[in-house]
Amino acid sequence: MTSTAPQHYRGERLGLPAEGTGSLAPTGTRALALLVDCAASGLIASLFVRRSDLHGAASHLPGSWSLIPLAIDYIVGLILGGQTLGMHLFGVRVVRVDAASPAPLSCGHDRLAGTGA
To answer: What is the pTM of this model?
Structure first.
């Protein structure tokens, strides 16, 4: 049984630096990037969805339809570029922590970390 020593900073066990390029992005930055992704997905879905059971501005609320552009943003964005729209705006990307260079994701079961680019 292996005991783990406490980390001095977030990302130490992954071999990431404490701050700067390549360090783990702060939780607030990652949450804001997710919020931007959700808002953008809702706006995109509202262009294509019109609900007949609601009137006025509420008829453009996309509901669960906004999950489709959100899924496309995450799947395509992470596989091809290592970041989504919100991550790009806040300078966050997802990289493989077991690779020598921070390349975009490949389809595999590797350890991943959200880092500040």
So the answer is: 0.71
